[in-house]
Amino acid sequence: MSAAGQNINHAIISRTKISSPLPLLHDLSFYASQSSSQMKLTLIFLYSIDLLCFFLTLSIAANPPQNCEPKNCGGLINVSYPFWIKGLQPDYCGYPPFEVTCINNTPMLLKSLEDDYIVLNISYEQGTIRVASVRYARNHGDFDGCSVPYYNLSFSFAPLKISSANRELIFAYNCSADEPQVIQIPCAGMKSRLAYLGGRYGFPKDDGVFGSCYTAVMPVLDYPGAKVKDYPKLLANGFLLNWTAPDCTECRASGGQCGYNNDTMDFMCICPNRTYWRRCSKGHHNTALIIGISVAGALSLALFSFFCLLLCRRWKRKKLSSSSLLNRMVSSQWSSKSGPELGSSHCTPIFSYEELYEATNSFDASNELGDGGFGTVYKGQLRDGRVVAIKRLYNNNYRRLEQFMNEVKILSVLRHQHLVTLYGCTSRRSRELLLVYEFVPNGTVADHLHGSLSSKSFLPWQTRLSIAVQSADALSYLHSIEPQIIHRDVKTDNILLDNNFQVKVADFGLSRLFPVDATHISTCPQGTPGYVDPEYHRCYQLTDKSDVYSFGVVLMELISSKPAVDMTRQRNEINLATMAINKIQRRELHELVDSRLGFDSDLCICRMITQVAELAFLCLQLETEMRPCIKEVLQSLRGIATAEINREDRREGDDATVEEARLLKGFSPCSPNSVMEAWVSSSTTTSSTVEC
């Protein structure tokens, strides 16, 4: 084989994860017993595609990728997985957020919104990395004392977290303090600056030291005998970050090197003959086996094509009226219920078809509110005067019937102020299946951000933050009850608003009840493009973190007023989640934020938006375990809102905001406390990490 051909194989294999079709077989066995023939055919099709991909993957796995030997950069030696040096090691040698850049023989971590950081040390045993700001580390603590931070440290990436082993070095501006541990930093042309060496980073501290002063907090790594007057050396000495990554022990023990497949977004073990899932195989590459598997794959494709032709012919001969099919499906679904009616078994009121037909004025098109996923939603008024929303099931569709049944089952037992209320449904003997909800009059969040109402009304930032908190509260309730409920279709179109802009989360047709003690459910991916968890789409495993990913997209919509998917945007920006992650990593958050929100003119709004953007960034992590749970997200959002209220209360009556505005004008962007800090300790709730 030519060198060019070998390089192509290397590229293919380095991006390929060899997986077995057995998990999908499990899906087939699970669903075949409870689905229609149409569902079975769909799953058989998916299985065949997965099987074919499995064969083709094996057939091209002929050459191993380049080795991921440890590399050095300056004083940083033996850099290896999960870290990797850009330009010295292939990008599959480490986890993407752990990229180290070697600039002029200096290892750099180019990740912060405010500054670049020099990597001083990596501890693979303790899972820590020590970094220091370039502006302080290069001078080894010998710099102008006036050049102290004016901002709080803010990291916009995961999974690195500021370690609680650091201490807090606090700088205060435009105030005075009588504490003996506080020193003054005289600077020409500036008002008083103070410095104070506090306790452990992230733990509750005494805000009374500086009162209502404007403060900037930096983590520093303590050393014996360190005093606050040594703040230049403390800044140059850097601080610790904690990191976690998939375990590499099994791979190394089998003779392989650990890496990360950027296409499949998963760990891979790089072995002498090829890449493997977790560890190297004891066998060796067998060309005859590869040829045999390739032939088997080709035969499978031929059989699959023949099978499809037979199914098409059978499908054309199948003639059933829509009414008889619907009745048969309804009888099948309800036959297993203990009561005579589904509604009664769930304590859900039963409405007659005639009453709802009358309430909607014969389902007049002028009363149509929109599409509700598996049916059309109409506005109606019941005989008792209640204004309601009525969802009418589309005919002759098993999947939509299943969603109808699912929504009744779930909503009939849920009670929460931010979940839409189900008033009832029609009888199974009714000529049509209808659901009756409370009417929420002010449209959806999507309507106000980038839909039909966006030109008529503008949502200010405080309203958007309130929407985020209330939506997270509703999802936290769903995830905390037993059995746990995964919404599976979290999006701005399913977040309704009343006239006071209070949230009502709706549309539970795709939701799933989680078995107690289960970590995931294996199921075919469903949801709305732009919101579906990539890990769920790739592994067919639904978890509570799937809702967290979707909620991260919602947060980005609230910040940007942009839809989750927009085909008119540039190719690499069609997906809002991808665009947002790229802009945050390139420190271009200001380009993402809706310019009408006051991000560039109001320091408080700038601080809150940056914190929410960081939180959304964590929710959008590709690997499930890197995302926070929804309870952590809710706590962080509440902390952001509460912190700003408290900050404004403390500043009322003084002119500190004038100085802040001057600082903001001279230094951009603004930099609030990182939301990651709140997961270690939150001053608004508790000093311990939230238990999901």
Question: Strand order, biggest sheet?
Answer: 3-4-5-6-7-13-8
CATH architecture of the largest domain: Orthogonal Bundle
CATH top-level class of the largest domain: Mainly Alpha
Largest sheet: 7 strands, mixed
- Strand element count: 28
Question: Approximately how much helix is present in the residues?
Answer: 25-40%
Radius of gyration: 29 Å
Classified in CATH, the superfamily of the largest domain is Transferase(Phosphotransferase) domain 1
Number of helices: 21
GO molecular function, one term: ATP binding
InterPro entries: Kinase-like_dom_sf (IPR011009), Prot_kinase_dom (IPR000719), Protein_kinase_ATP_BS (IPR017441), Ser/Thr_kinase_AS (IPR008271), WAK_assoc_C (IPR032872), WAK_GUB (IPR025287)
Keywords: ATP-binding, Glycoprotein, Kinase, Membrane, Nucleotide-binding, Serine/threonine-protein kinase, Signal, Transferase, Transmembrane, Transmembrane helix
Domain Protein kinase: 363-640
